[in-house]
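Ticket closed. Logging final result for Ferrous iron transport protein A.
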Amino acid sequence: MRLDQLPLRERAHIADIDWTALSDAEARRLREFGFGEGVAVEVWHRSGLLGRGPIACRVGRMTVAIRRSNAAAISVVQQDRP
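Final structure:
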């Protein structure tokens, strides 16, 4: 599943990032925010009309807003809830 498809408040881990789908600046920004394989992530909010706005994500202990197109390059695996 892609990060842009992850249901709100569902915990997941990043399985893979298609770095080739991102510009150098976008890839650098995601790395600076802590995005990488194995990192815990959660979608907190989706903004914008027609599904085109940014997504607010919790990455580790930080909340960041990323472009939906960037989120589409991130594959995640949902965690099982206890």
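Strands lie at 11-17, 40-46, 55-59, 62-66, 74-78. No further action required.
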